[in-house]
């Protein structure tokens, strides 16, 4: 690994730790645990994806993303509830909502507004570095959390997965290369996400998913993430064994999100 101190992921993680410490000062562990216990029951995230795949469709996790470090502001007229509804009408089976404020201009309010607008299972998309954030995710109503192998030790990944599972959430484990994949396969998570974006260079290339999907054993469910733009991309990914996709930017840039989502999935209007 050639992690340098200027590595963007490292910087995001440092800032996230500081931000989490600020929030922990408002809600300590007992408090956030109690809120997680009282949260609305989980919606089956992995099940929704698997049902789609079982009926021959590529399960779309559509992402609500206002801005990103690589693209800057993506959607100025940002209404998470309206976008959630448009995604659902377009055929998304799950939603992902960025809650990181510093780099993605997201928030917990975006997440809860989207969740209230639709009945789709919800991924809380953030940089999870502390068990406190797992309770926090369930407390806001998350049905799935993302665990980024590049940001975690094996021990952290294992214990976070165990906690998320105990709270009845699913886990999407994210990998970008073979070394991370090998570590991820040591976990129990069914859902393995291959991030096409190189977090050091910010370049996306769906060939990363094509190369890696074939290395993932059939009992796992393969999700390709980032840089997916059209139906031709999906056909390429499907041919490589990808069963689900996570798409944000290319849909968030469209005026008519429902229409764009249908077009992406190759569904007639
Ligand atoms: O907007 P895109 O290129 O369609 O990508 C979506 C999603 O894969 C991307 O937002 C993402 C994948 N892994 C992440 C980890 C943190 C933040 C963001 C991400």
TrEMBL record:
Family of this protein: Belongs to the TrpC family.
GO biological process: L-tryptophan biosynthetic process
Catalytic activity: 1-(2-carboxyphenylamino)-1-deoxy-D-ribulose 5-phosphate + H(+) = (1S,2R)-1-C-(indol-3-yl)glycerol 3-phosphate + CO2 + H2O
Pathway where it operates: Amino-acid biosynthesis; L-tryptophan biosynthesis; L-tryptophan from chorismate: step 4/5
Lineage top rank: taxon: Bacteria
SUPFAM superfamilies named in the record: Ribulose-phoshate binding barrel
Name this protein carries in UniProt: Indole-3-glycerol phosphate synthase
InterPro entries cross-referenced by the UniProt entry: Aldolase_TIM (IPR013785), Indole-3-glycerol_P_synth (IPR045186), Indole-3-glycerol_P_synth_dom (IPR013798), Indole-3-GlycerolPSynthase_CS (IPR001468), RibuloseP-bd_barrel (IPR011060)
Domain spans labelled Indole-3-glycerol phosphate synthase: 9-264
Pfam family, one: IGPS
This enzyme's EC code(s): 4.1.1.48
Keyword line: Amino-acid biosynthesis, Aromatic amino acid biosynthesis, Decarboxylase, Lyase, Tryptophan biosynthesis
GO molecular function term, any single one: indole-3-glycerol-phosphate synthase activity
């Amino acid at each position: 690994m050639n992690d340098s101190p200027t590595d963007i992921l490292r910087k995001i993680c440092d800032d996230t730790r500081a931000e989490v410490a600020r929030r922990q000062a408002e809600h300590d562990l007992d408090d956030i645990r109690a809120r997680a216990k009282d949260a609305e029951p989980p919606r089956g995230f992995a099940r929704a994806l698997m049902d789609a795949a079982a009926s021959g469709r590529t399960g779309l996790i559509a992402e609500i993303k206002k801005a990103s470090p690589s693209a800057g502001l993506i959607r100025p007229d940002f209404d998470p509830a309206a976008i959630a509804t448009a995604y659902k009408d377009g055929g998304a089976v799950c939603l992902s909502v960025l809650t990181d404020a510093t780099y993605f201009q997201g928030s917990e309010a975006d997440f809860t507004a989207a969740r209230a607008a639709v009945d789709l299972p919800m991924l809380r998309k953030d940089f999870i570095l502390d068990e406190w954030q797992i309770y926090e995710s369930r407390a806001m109503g998350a049905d799935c959390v993302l665990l980024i192998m590049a940001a975690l030790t094996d021990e952290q990944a294992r214990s976070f997965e165990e906690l998320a599972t105990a709270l009845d959430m699913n886990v999407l484990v994210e990998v970008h290369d073979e070394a991370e994949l090998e570590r991820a396969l040591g976990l129990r998570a069914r859902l393995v996400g291959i991030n096409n974006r190189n977090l050091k260079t910010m370049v996306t290339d769906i060939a990363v998913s094509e190369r890696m999907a074939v290395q993932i054993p059939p009992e796992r469910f393969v999700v390709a993430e980032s840089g997916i733009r059209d139906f031709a991309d999906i056909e390429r990914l499907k041919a490589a064994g990808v069963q689900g996709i996570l798409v944000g930017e290319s849909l968030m840039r469209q005026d008519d999100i429902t229409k764009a989502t249908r077009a992406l999935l190759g569904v007639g209007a």
